[in-house]
C-alpha cells in the first residue's frame, strides 16, 4: 500500500471513532458513548481534495493500565504509530488536559512522527479557555473541531494533507481480492490472520469476543494482493445483550457482503455448530466463494478414521456448500496454513472462471441425453440453450419452455454436470431460468 498513513490516537472516549467515521464518510468504526469500544486498529481508505490516504482508528490508550485488554490495545497503538506518516492526537476540549493526555503526548513525541493536536468536542465557533490548556502538551497548536457536528474537519484535513510524503500517493489497486475470515467467537480467526501476516496485526487473547469490528489487513502472497478481513464472531441472538455486540454482528455481515471469498473457521475441538451453519448460509446466499478451515487440529485427539469422520460430518451438516474445500489447520503452529493460501488462489480463479457458450451447451446437451428432463401432465421440460452471464460468482442463464417444469433436483443435476467438467471448487453456481420469448 503506497499511500500516506494517518493514525488517530487518544485516550478512551474522546471521539476518535466518530472522527474516523466522519473522515471516511461512512459508519465503519463502532461508536458508542462508553470507553474502550474500539480495541483493534481499524483501517479504511479516505480522500480529501483528490489526495488519497489510509486512515487508522485505534483503541483508547491507557498507558498505565496493567489489565490485559488495555495492555494489548497499547501494543496495537504503538504498532499503528510506527506505520503512520501523520498522527492525529485527539483530546477532549470540554474536559481540558488530563494526566493520561500528558502520558500519551510523551509517547508521541518520542515517535518522531508528524503530530497534529486535535481538540474535539468544541461545539461552537467560539473557542473555550480549556482549548488553550493543551499548549502545555508541547505538541503544537490545538486544532478545534467537533466530530459529532462536523465542525472544523475540513480545516483539519487541509492540515493533514500538507504533511503527506510526496512518494506515497499512487493509485489503489482496485482488483485486490477481499477475503473475510468468519466464524463464531474464539475459534482462532485473529490467530489465523496473525499467522498469515507474521505479526500481531489484531489482538489475540483467550477472551471470547475480543474482536468487535471488522478489520482489514493487506497481504501479498506469491505476487497476488489480498485484503483479509478479520470479523467479530457471530453469537446466537439470545447471547447478544449489548449494543456493541449488535453492531459487531452487523459488521460481520457487512464484511461478508463486501468480500469476494470467505474462510469459515470451525473449531476442531467442537465440530460444526448451529452458528457455523447460519454464518455459512449467509455467505452462500450472498454468492461468496467459501473455504472451510478446521482450526485447532493440532490438539484434537485422533484415532484411525478421525479425519474422514470429521470431514463426513462437515459435509452432512453443511450439505448446502459441498462445493467448499476443507483444510485442517493449526493457526497456532502454522500447520497447513500454506495449503490454505494455495486454496485461496484456486478458489479465486474459479470465482472468475467463464465458460464459452458453445462448450456450456455441449455439456447441457450431453446431460439431457444421459438423464431425460422431468415432465408433468404429458409436457416435458425442454432446454433450448444456455449462456454464462456473470462471474464472481458464476451465473448461468438457461432458456426453457416452462419454468414450472424445472425441478430443484434437475437443477442440481445440471450443476453437478457443469462441476464435473469445470470443478468450480469453492464457488457457488447460480442459475436463472427464462422461458423462451421472455
UniProtKB/TrEMBL annotation:
This is GTPase Der. GO terms for biological process: ribosome biogenesis. It comes from the Bacteria. Residues 4-168, 177-352 form the EngA-type G domain. Associates with the 50S ribosomal subunit. CDD domains: EngA1 (cd01894), EngA2 (cd01895). NCBIfam families: GTPase_EngA, small_GTP. GO terms for molecular function: GTP binding; ribosome binding. Keywords: GTP-binding, Nucleotide-binding, Repeat, Ribosome biogenesis. GTP 2 binds at residues 183-190, 230-234, 295-298. GTPase that plays an essential role in the late steps of ribosome biogenesis. The lineage of its organism: Bacteria, Bacillati, Bacillota, Tissierellia, Tissierellales.
Amino acid at each position: 500500500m503506497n499511500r500516506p498513513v494517518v493514525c488517530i490516537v487518544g485516550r478512551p472516549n474522546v471521539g476518535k471513532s466518530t472522527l474516523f467515521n466522519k473522515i471516511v464518510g461512512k459508519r465503519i468504526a463502532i461508536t458508542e458513548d462508553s470507553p474502550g469500544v474500539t480495541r483493534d486498529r481499524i483501517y479504511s481508505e479516505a480522500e480529501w481534495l483528490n489526495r488519497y490516504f489510509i486512515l487508522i482508528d485505534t483503541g483508547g490508550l491507557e498507558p498505565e493500565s496493567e489489565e490485559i485488554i488495555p495492555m494489548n490495545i497499547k501494543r496495537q497503538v504503538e504498532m499503528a504509530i510506527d506505520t503512520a506518516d501523520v498522527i492525529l492526537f485527539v483530546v477532549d476540549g470540554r474536559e481540558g488536559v488530563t494526566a493520561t493526555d500528558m502520558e500519551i503526548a510523551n509517547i508521541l513525541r518520542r515517535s518522531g512522527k508528524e503530530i497534529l493536536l486535535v481538540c474535539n468536542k468544541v461545539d461552537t465557533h467560539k473557542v473555550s479557555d480549556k482549548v488553550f490548556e493543551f499548549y502545555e502538551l508541547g505538541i503544537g497548536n490545538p486544532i478545534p473541531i467537533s466530530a459529532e457536528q462536523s465542525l472544523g474537519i475540513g480545516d483539519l484535513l487541509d492540515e493533514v494533507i500538507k504533511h503527506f510524503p510526496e512518494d506515497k500517493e499512487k493509485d489503489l489497486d482496485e482488483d485486490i481480492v477481499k477475503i473475510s475470515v468468519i466464524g463464531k467467537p474464539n475459534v482462532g480467526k485473529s490467530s489465523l490472520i496473525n499467522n498469515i501476516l507474521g505479526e500481531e496485526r489484531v489482538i489475540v487473547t483467550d477472551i471470547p469476543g475480543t474482536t468487535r469490528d471488522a478489520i482489514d489487513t493487506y497481504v501479498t502472497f506469491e505476487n497476488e494482493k489480498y485484503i483479509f478481513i478479520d470479523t467479530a464472531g457471530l453469537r446466537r441472538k439470545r447471547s447478544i445483550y449489548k449494543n456493541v455486540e449488535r453492531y459487531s454482528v452487523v459488521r460481520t455481515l457487512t464484511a461478508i457482503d463486501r468480500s469476494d471469498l470467505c474462510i469459515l473457521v470451525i473449531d476442531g475441538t467442537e465440530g460444526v455448530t448451529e452458528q457455523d451453519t447460519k454464518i455459512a448460509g449467509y455467505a452462500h446466499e450472498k454468492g461468496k466463494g467459501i473455504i472451510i478451515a478446521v482450526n485447532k487440529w493440532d490438539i484434537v485427539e485422533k484415532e484411525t478414521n478421525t479425519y474422514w469422520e470429521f470431514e463426513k460430518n462437515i459435509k452432512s451438516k453443511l450439505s448446502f456448500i459441498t462445493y467448499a474445500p476443507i483444510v485442517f489447520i493449526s493457526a497456532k503452529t502454522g500447520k497447513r496454513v500454506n495449503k490454505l493460501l494455495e486454496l485461496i488462489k484456486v478458489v479465486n480463479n474459479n470465482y472468475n472462471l467463464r465458460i464459452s457458450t458453445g462448450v456450456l451447451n455441449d455439456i447441457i446437451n450431453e446431460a439431457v441425453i444421459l438423464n431425460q428432463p422431468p415432465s408433468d401432465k404429458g409436457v416435458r421440460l425442454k432446454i433450448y440453450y444456455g449462456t454464462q452471464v456473470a462471474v464472481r460468482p458464476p451465473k448461468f442463464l438457461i432458456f426453457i419452455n416452462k419454468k414450472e417444469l424445472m425441478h430443484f433436483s434437475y437443477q442440481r443435476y445440471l450443476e453437478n454436470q457443469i462441476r464435473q467438467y469445470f470443478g468450480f471448487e469453492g464457488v457457488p453456481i447460480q442459475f436463472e431460468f427464462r422461458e423462451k420469448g421472455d
